[in-house]
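Re: folding output
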Amino acid sequence: MALLAGKWALPILTELARGPVRNNALLRRIEGVSQKVLTQNLRDLERSGLIARIDHGTVPPNVEYRLTALGHSLDRTLVGLDRWAERHQAALAEARAQHDLRRVETE
């Protein structure tokens, strides 16, 4: 869970779920991420077996990243979580509003 709790892992996985992507394309698609942070996250995700780094052995270097089978299985789970959040968005907002109201009343 710690791997996925970071700010950038989910946006990276979401982009890779669309198909293999080169590093610079990921950098352009994920707004706000630095090259250093992107590289570190890619290494962590690769180390965990969620993505694969494919080096085409060309000059200049042509490296792309793709989801592994394990990464695809996580993507299916994340899609389900996203759908749950969409279905329950109103209930979550109402619960937060009620909680905040009770908190203000007790202060």
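--- second protein (sequence, then structure) ---
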Amino acid sequence: MSTRKMWTYKRSLHRSRPIHTPTRRRVVAGLAGGGIVVAGWTGLAGGQVAFAQSSADEDKRVRFSRAFTTAQLPKDLDALGARLGTPMLLRVFKQEREVEVWVQPDDQQTFVLFRIYPICFFSGDLGPKIEEGDMQAPEGFYFVGPEQIRAHSQFHRAIEFAFPNNYDAAQGYTGTELLIHGNCVSSGCYAMTDPFIEQIYELASATVASPARGFWIHAFPFHMSDAAMAEQQDSPWLAFWQQLKPGYDAFESRRIPPLIRVDGEGYKITEL
């Protein structure tokens, strides 16, 4: 299956869901739990290439700013051979507090890193969203379509996770209004500064309006290197994270989003 054809197929991971209207959130002024450590990625073990630690990738990292505009997006995408509306993947890393934006240039099958945006705030700890009101930000694989893109939000712009997906539903997990949004406050979401969510929104809205009609969000607790996983042997979420790691490894090795489905109650990953 070609990379471009797979986008519509992958939406089968998710159930049809009604569009939720925004509700007022309780603002959490900081990181709940106090135990999240912002750490650099140590890279992949076992001789694999540590793509995201290269100096070229470091150049993609953007810093906090309220003067960041969307005007430069077309030119910056063109430098990669891409454009607004190109296939896109967002990778969210909770512990590192980063959102990576990957795009697929017009003339190639693999994706390239466009930018790394800092997460301003998120609430909760490492681990998935379990139930409404637990203040946890989601972890897992989510396909976002046009109905999840919000131009108007009490948090400036917003992208909904399409939570719960089939995996979450199989576990009986509950929750609504799980977003990547602006305003730099969070109660179960990943909050960006307004200028940064403005850029992510522009990229997302163009992609969902294209023939792809959507894109993946891969939300991880941390960069899932073998060494990082070895440090989590006592975590109650180890078994869940072991289901996410094949998806992380597949993209790290090939730079093509893998085929993701739910078989029974578990994620199943197939490299394309």
